[in-house]
Amino acid sequence: MVRVMRSDLAEHVAHLRLVDHHVHGAFTVDLDRAEFETHLNEGSPGPVPDWMTQFDSQLGFAIRRFGAPVLDLPAHAPADEYLARRTELGGRAVTERFLRAAGVSEWLVDTGYAADSILDVDGMAAASDGRAHPVVRLESLAEELAAEGVAGQDYADEFGARLEHATRDAVGVKSILAYRAGFDIDLSPPAPHAVADASRRWVDGIEHAPGGPRLVDPVLMRHGLHAAVQLGLPIQIHTGFGDRDLDLHRANPIHLLDFLRTPDVARVPIVLLHCYPYHREAGYLAQAFENVHFDVGLAINHVGVRSTQVVAESLELAPFAKQLYSSDAWGPPELHHLGAVLWRRAMTSVVGRWVEDGDWAADDALRVVDMIGRANALRVYGLG
Ligand SMILES: [Zn+2]
């Protein structure tokens, strides 16, 4: 009897078409071993030292366990065989296999980081046979303006006009404030003269900035965030885990309390991305603020088989209507696939156990799976 219930649930979860509400493009290029391994480490942007392999990690083991069968290899195939099979099939074919095997119908694609080397929004839709929708990165928009020398009194008007234009076909915006300033700063809307001054300072200093303008000015970051609040589209905010550029302790979403208490902000959906290791703080914020939602994407992939625990912890304080699925995959299409596999596996295991123990009704378990995997994202982003 109990076994039947678990397999019904597993069947249901396996066939649910997911909405991956925060993801980046996948590579279609061939990768050598060193390049591939670099992308299995989120924290370090540098090459993997030659005395170790990044395959010896939860993520590496999970790719060999769950990715190998997608490439017609046995589960746990050794890394060398895995990479040889990848090369044999070619980057384009590998990407199509993984994206299609993910069972995702909608990808919400952040196009703001290193967009030249990965599939764009249309490319993601075509390669996956699904739908893809753009999410506009606020900081990239500001950097575009600065590169064109827009500054002073014109900056705010031009930013507003560009934001309006860029988001015509977008379903949301995203901020990487965590990377550039941290959350433990004043996040109130800056005065117009402060924005004009800050943009002038920025543009004046650009000729000395190698690699083009990079927005780090807190005043302009706050301005971008509040311009997005006025626009009213859902605002995704990177929180928690990321590469070592970020001061992790300043990326704890609990520092956003004052921002979230602002009446204007309360009218806009705020989606906290990733959150790990602060997913419990995110769960509290999702309980405390009607407009706050969150996911545990990115971490699910990187903690591999331990994602069961992270997903269980995400199901503690937060109402189930406030949680979303994401892979936060970037680059290797294994990550777009693995996020979905590990999330399905974790949900089946965690809520399946509660049903078996008689703590949850089987129908409720199915409903919650549908909400987090799909329905909540369709509601938050206004997708039909
Ligand atoms: Zn991301």
From TrEMBL:
Pfam families: Amidohydro_2. Residues 132-383 form the Amidohydrolase-related domain. This is Amidohydrolase family protein. It comes from Pseudonocardia adelaidensis. The lineage of its organism: Bacteria, Bacillati, Actinomycetota, Actinomycetes, Pseudonocardiales.
